[in-house]
Design brief:
heterodimer; A: mainly alpha; 13 helices; globular; B: mainly alpha; 12 helices; 61% helix; flat
């Protein structure tokens, strides 16, 4: 219980720090982007304005979140070490595990608030755009502009961002910010090619290389699985089982990375 | 006091200078147009991989590029007036987002449009729609669009009627689709059937672009009717007077017309000898070929 309170205290301080560092300013950028796009898209394209705003909103939520997760995640531990505040922190009744978990939860809270506000702004823009469309056109839509089913994709985006944060935090426990950013973004990119790794044996002659790629498919985080943006925009069925398994997969991977982060950080010598 | 204002004044002066230089450079005229837009990635499969989790938004970008290219080329804003990138752009769009219904529907119309208004490639239009039907086998609009291409570009009215008939049997198809198939089969190619087709499109259009296009097509048909009437008037005048009218004013003076006759867009018709035609700047041009595509 005391541990949870300590983790909560660290998390709240991380959240406050991100507010102080003006991280939430990205919300203004997001709102401006959506409002500008909603005006411009109609001038640029023939039809599908709502579809494009849906795509743009989901892509922007994922991108803004990714930037926050990577570039704040890599500095979570490194900043404390660089400022030497880690010495005073660890001299307090705060275990290294609580420190790591608190930092992670704090950034998770920042991301959740960010995503929630972006989603509200996105739905407001969609609702406004829907009012500008003639009723006879609206009648032909297979899915409403403010379809709540799109929140399924937002949910998986949030899990994906939490996973990216865990990766960034893991690297930040032993590496420099520059390398941590490179490793994290690299893993995120590779995580989208998982299907290719799985089928690698079909394009190479070497069985060993095929098995190695197959192994990597299972070991590396599969970020492609979290991407159901296209399906929700077209209101296609995404089985509840798929959502639950993917969210659980993300949760287990996050637990794995946090355990590894705590293990690495516990062995670090700050003398 | 002076130091406090120095920075803002300097910023304003620099901004004003930048704006002034921009205006000065523009006054010197534009540089000659460079090479036309380039498609750096032509392989849909490669682009699909590179898009990571941004396939949908990238599909939107390629769709907007396709629409812009079609519109700019059609309006003569591009140096080479070529539609050569249109099909690759549409291919990339539908590979990134196979459910992008409008890209199939409008893309096929763009591709099938005869030169100079389009590339005149109904074969590619039908291929595009076939891919759409593979991805969305229950979307009646794709079957209707295929019928369209057969009707307008291939003048294959039996095939058009077949596709309209298939569309009519799909869930959500409008009630007029069945009769449209019958009319196309019986009267395909005449103006009455064409007018019926475009009127149904105009009334059921889920998009401004489609509605405007239907409106333009209907006006073309009206213009063709008017040209026929005017041609008759000119022929009657010529037979009675023994010479063709030199201008519309001759026909007005002779009591055949009440005043200047304008096309459905408001542009006056041209009279060249005994031939009546649209003003070369009319947005109704080119008119469909009579007999082949009324």
């Amino acid at each position: 219980m005391r541990s949870l309170r300590t983790i909560g205290t660290v998390a709240v301080s991380v959240f406050r720090e991100s507010v102080r560092d003006k991280v939430l300013y990205n919300l203004v950028a997001f709102a401006v982007l959506l409002m500008a796009a909603s005006y411009l898209i109609g001038q640029l394209t023939a039809g599908q304005d709502i579809k494009i705003i849906k795509d743009l909103g989901l892509a922007a939520i994922a991108t803004f979140g990714l930037m926050i997760a990577v570039f704040i995640g890599i500095g979570l531990v490194w900043k404390e070490v660089e400022r030497r505040s880690i010495y005073s922190l660890l001299s307090k009744p705060l275990s290294r595990a609580e420190f790591i978990l608190g930092k992670y939860c704090g950034l998770g809270l920042t991301l959740a608030v960010n995503v929630a506000v972006m989603v509200v702004a996105w739905y407001v823009v969609l609702a406004y755009m829907a009012t500008t469309v003639p009723p006879e056109v609206r009648a032909g839509w297979t899915t409403p502009a403010t379809d709540l089913g799109m929140l399924r994709a937002v949910g998986l985006i949030l899990v994906e961002l939490m996973l990216v944060t865990a990766i960034a935090l893991f690297f930040s426990t032993f590496s420099s910010p520059f390398l941590s950013a490179g490793f994290t973004l690299g893993l995120w990119v590779v995580g989208h090619f998982n299907a290719d790794l799985k089928n690698f044996e079909a394009v190479v002659d070497s069985r060993a290389a095929g098995w190695f790629a197959h192994g990597l498919y299972y070991v590396l985080p599969n970020f492609a699985a979290f991407d159901i943006k296209q399906q929700v925009v077209y209101a296609q069925a995404v089985p509840a089982g798929y959502l639950a398994t993917t969210a659980l997969y993300g949760g287990v991977y996050i637990a794995l990375l946090l355990t590894a982060s705590v293990a690495v950080f516990s062995r670090r010598d700050f003398k | 006091m002076g130091r406090r204002f120095f920075t803002p004044v300097l910023l304003v002066m620099l901004m004003a200078s930048a704006i002034g230089l921009q205006a000065l450079r523009e006054r010197g005229g534009e540089l000659p147009a460079g090479p036309d837009s380039v498609l750096y990635v032509r392989s849909p499969a490669a682009l699909q991989r590179m898009a990571l989790s941004y396939k949908s938004i990238l599909a939107d970008v390629y769709w907007i590029r396709a629409v812009q290219l079609y519109g700019d080329t059609r309006l003569g804003r591009r140096a080479d007036r070529s539609f050569s990138l249109l099909h690759p752009l549409l291919e990339l769009t539908i590979t990134l987002d196979p459910y992008f219904g409008v890209a199939y529907q409008f893309g096929a119309l763009f591709l099938a449009e005869a030169p100079p208004g389009g590339p005149g490639r109904p074969d590619l239009a039908i291929k595009l729609l076939q891919r759409g039907i593979e991805a969305k086998p229950d979307d009646w609009r794709l079957y209707q669009a295929t019928g369209f291409v057969h009707y307008w570009s291939n003048q294959d009215y039996a095939a058009a009627a077949d596709w309209f008939g298939r569309a009519s049997r799909l869930p959500g198809a409008p009630t007029w689709m069945g009769p449209l198939a019958a009319v196309t089969l019986a009267e395909g190619g005449n103006r009455k059937a064409s007018r019926l087709l475009w009127r149904q499109i105009q009334e059921g259009a889920a998009d401004d672009w489609f509605r405007n296009e239907a409106d333009r097509r209907l006006k073309q048909l009206d213009a063709m009717d008017q040209i026929d009437l005017l041609q008759n008037v000119v022929a009657t005048f010529t037979a009675k007077q023994g010479h063709a009218p030199a201008a519309w004013a001759d026909l007005v003076r002779a009591g055949y017309l009440r005043g200047t006759i304008v096309d459905p867009t408001g542009a006056p018709y041209r009279l060249d000898g005994s031939t009546v035609s649209l003003d070369p700047k009319s947005r109704l041009l080119p008119l469909p070929k009579e007999g082949a595509r009324p």
